[in-house]
Design brief:
Helices cover 36% and strands 26% of the residues. The protein contains 7 helices and 8 strands. With 192 residues, the chain is α/β, with parallel strands linked by helices. Strands 1, 2, 3, 6, 7 and 8 form a 6-stranded mixed β-sheet that branches. It has a two-stranded parallel ribbon with strand order 4-5.
């Protein structure tokens, strides 16, 4: 959202259309020429038609209220699977990876509340309504302010990639170059 806000303020005369969709949908739109640039948080993707402008590992972090018994503790995937979870909607990339890891160990989340908003998930976790997992960039402020606490899950390490991609065979307009410049500035300055 910071990237889009800065772009709109810096280039108010440019029309910017933002599509939010699954990785597969975005990749399909990119292949059809319907999108100029896509930003993904997923496993690495590849097409010989694409240029990856930026790529960065992003850790997916389990977290809870600082009052939760698992706060700042090392636990197992079996232990964490027994907790009440606040999860993003089905089909979300990191939720899907988490559910695949559970299935490999013949586990599943028994108590779950699906929530479409990451801010709501963080707020509900703060209020002790459950635990969750989100990309680390969503949690930095809460972890620094100690309003939420990390849960270290020994046998579950989820790492995805932020990727900014464009079609290398299409003409690069000045507005696209400007957008890529802002994304580079944002991602390089907010790194680890």
């Amino acid at each position: 959202t910071y990237i889009i806000k800065e772009y709109m303020v810096t280039y108010p005369e440019v029309t910017l259309i933002v599509k939010i969709a699954t990785t597969l949908e975005l990749m399909g739109m990119m292949e059809k020429g319907l999108l100029d640039i896509i930003i993904l948080l997923d496993r690495k993707v590849f097409s010989s038609n694409w240029e990856v402008h930026f790529e960065k590992e992003e850790r997916i972090v389990f977290f809870c209220s600082p009052k939760h018994p698992m706060a700042n503790k090392q636990v197992s995937l079996v232990d964490v699977s027994k907790e009440k979870f606040l999860l993003t909607e089905k089909g979300c990339n990191y939720r899907q990876v988490f559910e695949e890891l559970l299935a490999e160990q013949r586990l599943e989340v028994n108590h779950c509340l699906d929530i479409g908003s990451t801010n709501t998930i963080i707020d509900y976790a703060k209020d002790e309504l459950g635990i969750s997992l989100l990309p680390e960039f969503n949690l930095k402020e809460g972890l620094q302010n100690h309003t939420i606490s990390e849960i270290s899950v020994n046998d579950c390490n989820i790492v995805l990639y932020i990727q900014v991609i464009f079609n290398k065979h299409r003409w690069m307009s000045p507005s696209m170059k400007a957008f890529l410049s802002i994304t580079s500035k944002y991602f390089y300055h907010t790194g680890p």
